[in-house]
Design brief:
The chain is mostly helical. The protein has two domains: 81 residues, no CATH class; 72 residues. 76% of the residues lie in helices and 0% in strands. It is built from ten helices and no strands. The chain is elongated and about 55 Å long. It starts with 14 loop residues before the first helix and ends with a helix.
Length: 193
């Protein structure tokens, strides 16, 4: 039986984002040293180390993983969301359907969702879903897409997205929740008419 990553606290929370991004940080070599520097709070040295990896291995998965770590530091530790979003976007632009590109796109969506910028969040999540519809990251993004649509009061789009999710990921625990949400939205839409 196929299992996707748990839908972050039943459609909420950012725990998945932290876990997903942390999984991209390599444990050995320069990336491992950079991670140790970041853990020790030496963020500027960690950034320099990750940037060295990007410069030495342009276009590789290692470089994209380093860019994910850079963006995470920029956003979480240096409180610079503009730089972090730009770094994530550069990963998406370079390799949208790679694991790193999907993670970066998801992170962009989570940021906008948390900032209550639901239209921007929906666009980011939609891009992840379109890049690789059957990936675990896309499954999470599809739920977040529906939530973003719902919060922006686009209930028709939200119910369609929940329906698509429940069909594409019918063998997951989250599919039942998506079916329930869709039924609630259809009921609301019926009451509005």
């Amino acid at each position: 039986m196929k299992r996707c990553l748990p839908v972050a606290a039943k459609f909420g929370g950012g725990g998945l984002l932290v876990a997903a991004l942390s999984s991209w940080i390599a444990c050995g070599g320069a990336a491992g040293q950079a991670a140790k520097l970041a853990d020790a709070g030496d963020f500027h040295q960690a950034l320099a180390s990750y940037e060295q990896t990007v410069a030495e291995k342009p276009g590789t998965a290692d470089a994209r993983e380093a860019q994910l770590a850079i963006a995470q530091i920029q956003m979480s530790d240096l409180s610079d969301p503009v730089a972090g979003l730009a770094t994530y976007q550069s990963v998406v632009d370079a390799a949208p359907d790679s694991d790193e590109g999907l993670a970066a796109g998801y992170a962009i969506g989570v940021h906008h969702f948390g900032a209550e910028e639901y239209t921007l969040a929906a666009a980011a999540f939609q891009a992840v879903v379109q890049a690789d519809p059957t990936s675990e990251t896309a499954a999470e993004a599809q739920i977040r897409l529906a939530m973003s649509q719902e919060r922006s009061n686009d209930l028709e789009a939200a119910q369609l997205t929940y329906g698509a999710y429940s069909q594409l990921h019918s063998d997951t625990d989250a599919a039942l929740m998506a079916i329930e949400k869709r039924a609630q939205l259809l009921d609301q839409l019926g009451k509005k008419s």
